[in-house]
Amino acid sequence: MKLDNHGFVVANAAIDSITLETLRKTIFIDGEAGTRCLLDVPLIKMVAISLRQHLSLQGLIDEKAIAVQAIAFDKTPSSNWKVTWHQDLMFPFFARTSSSRYGIPCVKDGVDYARPPIEVLSSMTAVRLHLDDCDELNGPLRISPGSHKDGIVKSSDIPEHLSRHGEFTCFAKEGEVILMKVLALHASSPALSPKHRRVLHIVYYSGGPIEENWHREI
To answer: Shortest CA distance to 166 belongs to which of 187, 151, 180, 181?
Structure first.
């Protein structure tokens, strides 16, 4: 699979085992499915910079890309959720957006979010660092290859796009990353055998200057 053509690719992260273990122990909250806006955490800043350096050498992201979001996800017996097919469209900003091109402004956990215009979304890539093995039993990510080229897809039109592009299940080993264009349609099912499926999800933006200020830039 190729990132530009298919909207996702699996790669090695080159993050050492001590850092992976520290992330597992420090960035997750028991009983909660996810924690947003983690770029202020020093260790996550370091990981975001390290991933950018390593992945840019492989030609997978731009060396000048900036990290604009970091989220920690986990699936456990107490937080074993289903995610329906969707695109990642809402991102955090420093303040409520003023441009009409940034739609659906809202506040989540005290942080302003909005949907950037299509040219911004098209330049955003999520890098999902897997801190545990992810197989068919613990709710792996499913992606519709090539769907990132379809622009913003209405919820009612998702079945048509899935029928056109199909779907692919992404497995990953501990220490691997799944890179995914944020406009790619994706989903995941509840784990069949619930166990940790810890992921650090960092979103990078590789386009030019924008009208608004990101909540954080690394």
So the answer is: 187
Quote the CA–CA distance of 120 and 98 in Å, as a whole number.
16
Specify whether the CB–CB gap between 45 and 159 falls below 8 A.
no
Under 8 Å between Cβ of 144 and 85: yes
Other CB atoms within a 10 A radius of the CB of residue 70 amount to 26
Q: 16-54 pLDDT, tens per residue?
A: 999 999 999 999 877 666 788 999 999 999 999 999 999
* Residue 68 to residue 114: CA distance in whole angstroms: 13
Strand order in the sheet with 111-115: 91-93, 111-115, 103-108
Chain-centroid distance, C-alpha 187? 12
pTM surpassing 0.90? yes
Q: Where residue 129 sits, what CATH number does that domain have?
A: 2.60.120.620
> Which residue range(s) make up the domain with 177?
3-205
The total domain count for the chain is 1
H or E stretch including 47? Answer: helix 42-57
**Burial group, residue 41, by CB count within 10 angstroms (0-12, 13-18, 19+):** middle
Residue 214 lies inside a defined structural domain of this protein: no
Point out which residues pair with 107 in neighbouring strands: 112
